[in-house]
Structures are given as structure tokens and as C-alpha cells.
Amino acid sequence: MILLNWRENIVVVLLICNTLPTKSDGKCKYDRPQQVVFTQRVQDHVLTGGHIVSTTLVSSDKDCQMKCIVSMKCDLFNLGPLDDSFRHTCQILRFGVHSYIAQRKNGWMFRARKNGGICFSIDGGNTPKCACLDRWKGQTCSVTDFCKAGWTKYKRSFFKVSEGKSTFNQANSSCISEGAGLVWIEDFDELHFLDTILEKDEKVFVGMTDIAEEGQWVWMDGSAPKLNPLWHGKHPKGGTSKNCGEYKQKHGFHAKKCDDTLKYVCKYSLDDM
Fold first, then answer.
1. Exposure class string for 239-252: b at 16+ Cβ within 10 A, else e
2. pTM
3. Angle at 253 between CA 247 and CA 258, to 5 degrees
4. What is the pLDDT of residues 76-93, one digit of tens each?
5. Signal peptide position in this chain (predicted)?
């Protein structure tokens, strides 16, 4: 369900759903509703502040809805007025962004998805029509094998704690071999989730390093961590001898020697598939 809370020209969008799946034979079955419906259109407004996944031309509101439905990253969309070719601009806004600003713009409108599935019911009937994407199955496309055995889901990502210990490079190679990467953390909510899958005071390698430039810590894809504060206590002063990231459960991040051996956490995301 999506709640729209208006205050002057500001709309706050909250996506509320049950993100915890049940597991069976490596499958993830979602308990949340899989039928996609949309909130009523909001006329003469356009949403800004979110990441635009794509911009295309469509012939109708329903066509833009379908663009949103088949995109696994769509949470909302903006629809422009008819142009000279009798088509509308359809802007797909990225799934998972929780706040936008609604600005007045004549002729534009926006809608929000209420549920997170990939089925739809244009006529409002009780039985949704489903066109399942690859690796999604079931009458309402509610079962997927994206959740491999031994992995734990949080929102749109999957996590696994290693059974044994490895060096940083070995850990990274092991994660890559499973189609994942050493864990990166988007926000403090995800960090709190990480605490729940680790043992008390457990230490693990995470996908963070300053090997490329001393003191400039980045995730393995080169992006800078968004967490602030990032470090527990003072910024680590490991110099050139400690260039790999360690996380201690409910304690924080530390610099660690890359040749030390620790357990580690792998992660992959549906958004990267």
C-alpha cells in the first residue's frame, strides 16, 4: 500500500509491504499481495526528487501503467499531456525511493503503484491477469527462485553469511562466483538487518576498501558509503597495512588487514539483474 500525505505541494510516499518471504527448496514465496493497482491520478502535478528510470512516449495512461508494471524498478510514474503526435511522455520513477516533491505543472499527472507484484487488473476484477517474468512462477507470479537456498532476503536484496573464514580477496572471489558481491550497505535500516543475521559480536569482511587511495574508503563498485557516521569512534588509522573493511555486529566498521581471515557476507540485488 502507498500512502500519500499532502502538505502544500509536498507529497511523501511510503511503500508498506511484507518483505519477509517464506522459504521452501530455495524458493521465495511472497506473502504480500501480487496484484498491481494504482492510486487515483493526481492532475496538474508532476513528481520530482526521484530517479527517473526511463522516459518513453505512449498513447495512453494505461500504456504508461503497463510500462510501470513490467519494470521491476517502477514505483510511480509521471504522464505528460498529449504532444503534436498525439502521444504522452511517460516517466518511470525508480522503485524504493520513499519521498518525492509534487510540483504543479499544467497538463501533467502522476500515479503510484499500490502493490509490488508483476500482475495487473485493469478492469478491477478479482482475478488478476499475470505475465510472469523469467524465474517468476505461480498463478499470481508470487514464487521466484531468485532466492537461492541459504540466502536471506531483505527488501530487494539477498544476503548470505559464509560458513568458513577467508582473506578479503578470497571472500570477494567467492561472492562473485555465486553471482553476488561482498556486502555493501545502503542505509542504517539495512545495517540493522545485517545485525540480525550475524552472531553476537561476530566480525565479518564487508565490501569496503581504501586500497586505491589511502583514507578514501569506497565500496567495491567505487561508490562512497552513504552512512554517516560511518565509523565507530575515531576514523581508522590503519595506514597502508589495513586497507579492507570489517564489520562487528552491533558495533561498527573497522579497518582490517586484507590478508587476515574472517567470515564474510555476500549480497546480490534484484535491481542489478
1. eeebbbbbbebeee
2. 0.52
3. 70
4. 899 999 999 999 999 998
5. 1-26
